[in-house]
Amino acid sequence: MGFDTLIVNGRVVTAADTYASDVAISNGKIEAVGKGLSRENAKKVIDANGKYVLPGGIDVHTHLDMPFGGTTSADDFETGTRAAAFGGTTTLIDFAIQYKGQTLRTAFDSWMQKASGKAVSDYAFHCIITDLGAAQLEEMNALVREGVTSFKLFMAYPGVFMLDDASIFKAFRATAKNGGLVCMHAENGSAIDVIVQQALAEGKKAPKYHALTRPTTAEAEACGRAIALAEMAGAPVYIVHMSCNDALEKVREARDRGLPVYAETCPQYLYLSLENMEAPGFEGAKYVFTPPLREKWHQEKLWNGLKQDHLQVVSTDHCPFCFKEQKELGKDDFTKIPNGGPGIEHRMSLIYSGGVAKGRFSVNRFVELVSTTPAKLFGLYPRKGTIAIGSDADLVIFDPDRKHTISAKTHHMRVDYSMFEGIEVTGMPDVVLSRGNVVVERDKFLGRAGAGEFIRRAGYTGR
Ligand code: URP
Ligand code: ZN
Ligand code: ZN
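Above: inputs. Below: predicted complex with zinc ion.
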């Protein structure tokens, strides 16, 4: 019996090693890794000469088909996972939202419905908790047992998503016992609200005021408070979409003390800055998301955080809204602009380009940031996040030299602009496989809606 697929002549890259090797696939799994594997009877041979063979990317922060601010994010599970695949991301973890008065199960069931039959590659869910009573605390245990092992809590958006400190502390105490992991949106929403109301009263309504009313101190304060509450509860905490050095310092200090504190940043905070908010007319609305863009000097601090392991993951926070009709809802008032930006497609290339091609860190660290650590922290490892016998054959044949200029004209996300328009990246996926099936070959999509499966994740065990 031969292999279903044999990848030859490539350089395999994991978080630990880089080496010349063939990779053999059968029944959607990696069956063998080694030199000179027999091509005889292999149903398909892919030549990866001059290319890297990487584990598929894992994006642990996406919002597909998500209602927000009177509209819904523009990519659904089909278009979103397809765009992700073009960029080398083969697994994503999206957020199922529990609205006030609902059970957590209602949230999970409703997001399962959105994804099943549509996703082209594998997916899992975190559960956003906005209303935490005794019943929901119980339900957290049940969800962890069913493979929804992480929960996003908000310290921002009072009256909508924000939880009070007592509820946050209770959630941490629950995860300390049940093996869940809290993902925290760390911004002091109450203080921000006061600043926002004052800006509106002063007639400051342009998009740039979204950023100017959300100071870095509000992010750092909430980040420090989240860490303190987690420490008191004896629980780990994962800070999402970190945007600035002030918050990064809180994470670094906590990790220096040996606490199980982790954080992600996103490409927009590494490539874009407050200057983008100053774009003429209403253009700044393209960059309205929370936390907001910061002064440019924060970018190098975040890159350095990725290098030094003060930050452990790069996700996208992909939450696309079209400029026309969706972002335009806030034409006369920045608080009405739906918060979020598109990015699911270009994470791998932007981080390879800015990280490895620019000499900031190694290709192994790149794999660790975009695939291996996300898999380990969120209970997907070793099924996902590495190249090893028995792992899912989610693989990317990546050309480290191919250049590409990012543009809304050529991207696959269902949104009418790109946050990274005109940026040239070095390093692009050539061929992408999801559980052994080729889903992307250069510009061609070869996958199928509904081929993606829900992945039950294991609980948090540390890294
Ligand atoms: O502005 C953002 N980030 N929108 C998505 C929701 C969130 O807070 O992650
Ligand atoms: Zn958030
Ligand atoms: Zn988000």
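Residues 57-377 form a domain with the TIM Barrel fold (CATH 3.20.20.140).
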